[in-house]
């Protein structure tokens, strides 16, 4: 049985109404981010699913430019935090200061930190200590911040797009598993092709700086995010998600690679992420409902940071791609 919140016809009409805006959004971002079509698509899927993304790549691959462009085309209040080893939680969340009123009374006033924006870029997040990294946990999960016992709501919509240098580089701290699980997707960014790099050289080294024009408003993005959760999902797709995620766990798998090489697998939040991401991908491609192909396409960015390989996998040169490809091969 397929669960729907509104009639399929009503949903289809809303999907068609949004198709032009979403196509314009992809094209608009593509004008500033060259040769990274899949990265742009996955990031937009993350935003439509009301999630957060972890962008991984060496410095200089336009991760910062991507976030700035998204803030411009979506009209979001974007903020940037440069994570460094000496960054403290209060530098992100804000802090209370002691002030004196005109009549001499003293009181605490809360000064909001940069997290109180709609699009937060956590730049090089793994260069700060685990204590500072964990300051984002409540905000990413509950869209609120608690300071000195007082809870403050964050703006709507609220997204964290964190960039991370490869953990093999010096001066990095691995992100804790609890925080990794809060990211809807891990999006890997590779080096550009030769033709793309030539275009980068020609179009980004002149005097003229082009500012992205706004294509959607935050209110329109919020409406699209609500529509994503109304898109129907068939029982066939739900069963495929359950099969994929449960087979990724060593204790419930019938997959030989997982049983031998995976230390721990994805939790229920991975299943939720796949459902939302598949719905968002269907909306982005102007379809009424997601398919098995969506699950296969999204398996790697949704699962790779929610699983850990064993020492045996490293010793025998078995990578996460090998494991996930083995899992998705049973869905096709």
From TrEMBL:
Q: What domain of life does the native source organism fall in?
A: Bacteria
**Where is each ATPase AAA-3 domain found?**
52-185
The UniProt entry, under Gene3D superfamilies, shows: Magnesium chelatase subunit I, C-Terminal domain, P-loop containing nucleotide triphosphate hydrolases
Q: Which Pfam families match?
A: AAA_3, AAA_lid_2
Q: Which residues form the ChlI/MoxR AAA lid domain?
A: 258-324
Q: Which residues form a coiled coil?
A: none
> What name goes with this protein?
MoxR family ATPase
């Amino acid at each position: 049985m397929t669960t729907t919140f509104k009639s399929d016809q009503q949903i289809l009409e809303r999907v068609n109404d949004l198709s032009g805006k979403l196509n314009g959004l992809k094209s608009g971002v593509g004008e500033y981010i060259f040769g990274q079509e899949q990265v742009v698509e996955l990031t937009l899927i993350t935003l439509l699913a009301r999630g957060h993304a972890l962008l991984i790549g060496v410095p200089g691959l336009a991760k910062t430019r991507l976030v700035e462009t998204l803030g411009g085309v979506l009209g979001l209040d974007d903020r940037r935090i440069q994570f460094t080893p000496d960054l403290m939680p209060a530098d992100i969340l804000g802090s209370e200061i002691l002030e004196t009123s005109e009549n001499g009374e003293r009181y605490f006033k809360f000064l909001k930190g940069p997290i109180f924006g709609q699009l937060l870029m956590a730049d090089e997040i793994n260069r700060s200590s685990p204590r500072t990294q964990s300051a984002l946990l409540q905000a990413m999960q509950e869209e609120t911040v608690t300071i000195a016992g007082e809870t403050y709501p964050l703006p709507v919509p609220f997204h964290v797009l964190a960039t991370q240098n490869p953990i093999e580089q010096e001066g990095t701290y691995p992100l804790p598993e609890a925080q990794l699980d809060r990211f809807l997707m891990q999006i890997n960014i590779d080096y550009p092709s030769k033709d793309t790099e030539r275009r980068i050289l020609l179009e980004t080294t002149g005097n003229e700086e082009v500012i992205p024009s706004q294509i959607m408003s935050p209110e329109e993005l919020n409406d699209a995010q609500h529509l994503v959760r109304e898109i129907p999902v068939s029982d066939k797709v739900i069963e495929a998600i359950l099969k994929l995620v449960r087979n990724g766990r060593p204790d419930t798998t019938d997959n030989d690679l997982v049983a031998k090489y995976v230390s721990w697998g994805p939790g229920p939040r991975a299943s939720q992420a796949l459902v939302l991401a598949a719905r968002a991908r269907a909306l982005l491609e102007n379809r009424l409902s997601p398919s098995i192909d969506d699950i296969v396409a999204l398996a790697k960015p949704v699962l790779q940071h929610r699983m850990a390989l064993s020492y045996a996998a490293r010793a025998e040169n078995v990578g996460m791609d090998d494991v996930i490809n083995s899992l998705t091969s049973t869905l096709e």
